């Protein structure tokens, strides 16, 4: 039997196909759209699953750059991992990622298995995801506009196989822009945000913006950390010797060598106490001061964080005190909105 | 603006019923909700009476349907429709104002559209 020819009228929605023939294949553009929609749906489901598999999610922000946020985020992750907890560290700083360097993962590449990205594993078993793993070399700039960054962040959240984690620490670029907004919108049940500041007035002013930002997104503020707070100068002299050290701003610090001849003074290079004052002003917890420790810079450059090289040192101790306050906050907080949608 | 916490949304045929934790209950029609879309495309249309009425007519002509509701972080909801605009992120404060029959844009639609 002769088949009925396929008739398509120009500029008309009417199409007659041969009943025996296969339906018309979607165009390449339609196929691309369908694929994108499918991937987006898959990602949303993965993000919901991830919400359940990761017990606590903590955002680390600062209003201002250069306050040592990545060092603090890395330190928090390592300090938690020191307790034997399963920890992940997500470096959302798309344009200036430096967490891998601090975690000894410089030059590493990510593996993909079954369509899922496997995080790299750094010191103390901390799982790390960063844009740096995707760059050809460290001098390559990432020049992306907001929507592209947004897509990359959604991929970092939805397409990574984190497995079960006790804590996920998320390190952001400075400020209150696309990145924290995207994460706050996409990642379910965030426990809260930690705001890192240094004691100067300018840094504190920007921290206040971060606090208002958190309030606007209804994300709890776990507290403020004052970084680079005081630089300890240590020395030895004959027991009982009176020591005078000229500090910043022409301030003289006096101390006396103890019976073993040891002496120490703490210089407030960037003032002190501002973080605590801001916390009081905004009625949020103050999590503690982290000392100005040149070892962080060296350790960061060498890929060995101070917590790894000197687990019993003063800086590790300071981190451990901050972390215990964070843990007591998140482990008593009831997360989840409890909204019923029917 | 301090508002109670939203506890329950019941999607009905033409409207939704909202229950807040202080016991307040609101009914918001889908037409009102869609006309008040806070996205950057719809918001400016409410700046002027004639374009606002046109937006309202467009919304009313759309097929009546129950939206898919998703939470956006801890601060807002998004509503997905099979036709028309689904881009708006509705902060809880905005839904409260709609429920209270107040202007959700607070007199400045376009600026508010940034959210």
| Biggest protein-protein contact in the assembly | A-B, 15 and 16 residues
Which regions of chain A have little confidence, pLDDT < 50, spanning 5+ residues? Answer: 1-17
Percent of residues in β-strands of chain B: 25-35%
Distance N terminus to C terminus of chain A? 55 Å
Computed Rg of chain B: 13 Å
CATH architecture name of the domain at 53-228 and 292-330 in chain A: 3-Layer(aba) Sandwich
> Structural class per helix/strand content of chain B?
alpha+beta
The CATH superfamily of the domain at 53-228 and 292-330 in chain A is known as P-loop containing nucleotide triphosphate hydrolases
What CATH architecture of chain B do you see?
2-Layer Sandwich
Q: List segments of chain B where confidence is low: pLDDT < 50 over at least 5 consecutive residues.
A: none
Count of the domains of chain B = 1
Number of helices of chain B: 4
Largest sheet of chain A: 8 strands, mixed
Residues in helices of chain A, as a percent range: 25-40%
From the 3D structure, determine the CATH topology of chain B: NE0471 N-terminal domain-like
Order of helices and strands of chain B: EEEHHEEEHH
- CATH class designation of the domain at 53-228 and 292-330 in chain A: Alpha Beta
* Major sheet of chain B: 3 strands, antiparallel
**Class per helix and strand makeup of chain A:** alpha/beta
Classify the beta-strand content of chain A into a percent band. 15-25%
Number of strand elements of chain B: 6
């Amino acid at each position: 039997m002769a088949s009925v020819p396929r008739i398509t009228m120009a500029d008309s929605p009417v199409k007659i196909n041969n009943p025996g023939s296969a339906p018309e294949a979607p165009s390449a553009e339609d196929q691309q759209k369908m694929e994108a929609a499918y991937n987006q749906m898959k990602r949303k489901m993965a993000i919901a699953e991830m919400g359940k598999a990761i017990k606590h999610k903590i955002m680390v922000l600062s209003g201002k750059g250069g306050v040592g946020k990545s060092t603090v985020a890395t330190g928090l992750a390592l300090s938690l991992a020191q307790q034997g907890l399963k920890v992940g560290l997500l470096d959302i700083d798309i344009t200036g990622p430096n967490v891998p360097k601090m975690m000894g993962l410089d030059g590493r590449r990510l593996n993909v298995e079954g369509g899922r990205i496997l995080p790299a594993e750094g010191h103390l078993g901390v799982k790390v995801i960063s844009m740096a793993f995707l760059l050809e070399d460290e001098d390559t700039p990432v020049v992306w506009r907001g929507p592209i960054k947004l897509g990359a962040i959604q991929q970092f959240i939805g397409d990574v196989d984190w497995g079960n984690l006790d804590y996920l620490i998320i390190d952001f670029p400075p400020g209150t822009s696309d990145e924290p907004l995207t994460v706050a919108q996409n990642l379910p049940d965030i426990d809260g945000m930690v705001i890192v500041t240094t004691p100067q007035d300018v840094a504190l002013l920007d921290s206040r913006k971060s606090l208002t930002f958190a309030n606007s997104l209804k994300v709890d503020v776990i507290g403020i950390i004052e970084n680079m707070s005081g630089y300890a100068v240590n020395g030895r002299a004959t027991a009982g010797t009176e020591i005078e050290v000229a500090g910043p701003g022409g301030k003289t610090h006096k101390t006396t060598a103890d019976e073993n001849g040891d002496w120490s003074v703490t210089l407030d290079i960037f003032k002190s106490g501002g973080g605590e004052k801001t916390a009081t002003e905004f009625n949020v917890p103050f999590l503690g001061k982290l000392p100005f420790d040149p070892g962080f810079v060296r350790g960061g450059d060498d890929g060995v964080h101070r917590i790894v090289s000197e687990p019993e040192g003063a800086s590790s101790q300071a981190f451990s005190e901050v972390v215990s306050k964070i843990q007591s906050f998140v482990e008593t907080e009831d997360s989840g909105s409890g909204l019923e949608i029917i | 603006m301090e508002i109670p916490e939203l506890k329950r949304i019941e999607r009905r045929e033409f409207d939704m019923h909202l229950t807040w934790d202080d016991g307040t209950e609101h009914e918001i029609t889908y037409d009102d909700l869609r006309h008040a879309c806070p996205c950057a495309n719809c918001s400016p249309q409410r700046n002027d009476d004639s374009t606002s009425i046109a937006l309202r007519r467009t919304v009313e002509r759309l097929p009546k349907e129950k939206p898919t509701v998703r939470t956006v972080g801890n601060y807002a909801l998004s509503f997905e429709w099979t036709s028309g605009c689904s881009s708006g992120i509705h902060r809880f404060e905005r839904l409260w104002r709609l429920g209270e029959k107040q202007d959700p844009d607070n007199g400045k639609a376009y600026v508010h559209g940034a959210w």
